[in-house]
């Protein structure tokens, strides 16, 4: 199973009975075989309660369930697609950057304020992530959208990575993120270097960064 | 010395060991280690540069990046090309200049009619000295060599940069048909003569010449 890269902007997914996929609605480009696409009113996994939760939190990206037998091609808006294979680890990603993921993964929503309290909430606002973000956990593949190519940067306890909030795509593993500010008097008078806010990621894992400062 | 590396075409990685580079404002996407970012007013060319840039409209919004570690730069998913200069001058549009090594000097020069036809104004940025510089383009750029025997003509909208001892001349292929509105869209070209390199991108900016 898993996703096969066709080009930098398109992936092929194998669908077999009993193992559904979830994808962003309308992201199917072509398919072979007997495959059905059902709009997922609950916006992902879980029951009605988790759907209501996502709706309330603004993390309800329109998803569809892909079932049957065959192969499906996915792509969206000419954006680059990056495949992340999760082997039991946890991925944090914005719902609107999710192109497709395997049904074997557990989907959840986390409150950014739970990491760092008020600063976490400020961080979500400053980075345009909002107050909530989507998590995926377990074994399986995830396809993530990015503008421009994706750069994977490993983070180790001895090597923290700072990321421009606009270029941040996703992160995997046991990472703590913190909004660090380098606001000086120059920023107050409008002469800033444009790098006043940075996300500092520390711990053990990987951070995915896109080659552009454009949000999707 | 700052080491410039390409990271899959669209990302520039610069290894810094306490030295400084100049990069387009806001183009940092990530870094490891300790870095400081400081905006340089007037393109980092001092007071004279500031006045010149203000007058010529060739505004260069740059910041100085200094520290230890690796810094990653990218600009709107543009493709990055590395240029190594050996006591040479590179002419480039300010908007296409991503990063220059600390030892390089930047300035402005007059380009004349060519600049106007490109829709970039009458002035362009020069980078001179010895060191590495990074350019961004829409699509991967190609490098074309110009020799005295083989002059080159380039579409103003696809022109990115040039280096070496080159003379440039603006030429027009405006004919009777162009005036009738039956043009091929290739009414203007820049002709390069001499010895040097020209960088061309596989995309065309909106130019006056491209309309006719």
Automatic annotation (TrEMBL), chain A:
Q: Which PANTHER family match?
A: ALTERED INHERITANCE OF MITOCHONDRIA PROTEIN 24, MITOCHONDRIAL (PTHR38074:SF1)
Protein name in UniProt: AIM24 family protein
Q: Which organism is it from?
A: Streptomyces chumphonensis
Instruction: Tell me which SUPFAM superfamilies the record gives.
Output: TRAP-like
Automatic annotation (TrEMBL), chain B:
Gene3D superfamilies the record matches: Mitochondrial biogenesis AIM24
Signal peptide start-end: none
Q: Which InterPro entries match?
A: AIM24, AIM24_sf, Trp_RNA-bd_attenuator-like_dom
**What residue intervals traverse the membrane?**
none
Superkingdom of the source?
Bacteria
User: What is the name of this protein?
Assistant: AIM24 family protein
Supply the source organism's classification: Bacteria, Bacillati, Actinomycetota, Actinomycetes, Kitasatosporales
């Amino acid at each position: 199973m898993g996703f096969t890269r066709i080009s930098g902007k398109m992936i092929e997914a194998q669908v077999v009975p009993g193992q559904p996929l979830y994808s962003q609605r309308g992201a199917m480009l072509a398919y072979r075989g007997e495959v059905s696409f059902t709009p997922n009113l609950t916006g992902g996994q879980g029951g009605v309660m988790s759907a209501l939760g996502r709706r309330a939190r603004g993390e309800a990206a329109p998803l569809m369930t892909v079932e049957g037998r065959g192969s499906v091609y996915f792509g969206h808006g000419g954006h680059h697609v990056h495949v992340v294979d999760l082997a039991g680890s946890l991925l944090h990603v914005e719902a609107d950057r999710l192109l497709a993921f395997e049904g074997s993964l557990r989907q959840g929503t986390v409150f950014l304020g739970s990491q760092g309290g008020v600063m976490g909430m400020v961080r979500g606002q400053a980075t345009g992530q909002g107050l909530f973000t989507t998590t995926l956990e377990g074994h399986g593949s995830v396809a993530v959208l990015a503008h421009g190519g994706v750069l994977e940067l490993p983070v180790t306890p001895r090597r923290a990575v700072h990321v421009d909030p606009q270029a941040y795509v996703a992160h995997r593993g046991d990472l703590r993120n913190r909004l660090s500010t380098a606001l000086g008097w120059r920023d107050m008078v409008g002469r800033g270097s444009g790098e006043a806010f940075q996300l500092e990621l520390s711990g053990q894992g990987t951070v995915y960064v896109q080659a552009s400062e454009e949000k999707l | 010395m700052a080491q410039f590396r390409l990271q899959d075409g669209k990302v520039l990685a610069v290894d810094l060991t306490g030295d400084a580079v100049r990069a387009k404002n806001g183009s940092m996407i990530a870094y490891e280690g300790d870095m400081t970012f400081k905006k340089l007013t007037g393109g980092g060319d001092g007071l004279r540069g500031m006045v010149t840039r203000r007058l010529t409209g060739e505004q260069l919004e740059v910041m100085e990046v200094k520290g230890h570690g690796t810094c990653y730069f990218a600009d709107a998913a543009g493709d990055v090309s590395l240029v190594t200069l050996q006591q040479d001058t590179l002419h480039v549009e300010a908007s296409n200049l991503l990063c220059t090594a600390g030892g390089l000097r930047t300035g402005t020069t007059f380009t004349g009619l060519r600049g106007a036809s490109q829709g970039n104004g009458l002035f362009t940025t020069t980078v001179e000295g010895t060191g590495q510089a990074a350019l961004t383009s829409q699509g991967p750029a190609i490098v074309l060599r110009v020799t005295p025997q083989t002059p080159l003509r380039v579409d103003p909208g696809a022109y990115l940069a040039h280096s070496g001892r080159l003379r440039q001349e603006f030429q027009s292929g405006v004919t009777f048909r162009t005036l009738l509105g039956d043009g091929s869209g290739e009414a203007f070209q820049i002709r390069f003569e001499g010895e040097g390199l020209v960088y061309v991108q596989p995309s065309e900016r909106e130019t006056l010449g491209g309309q006719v």
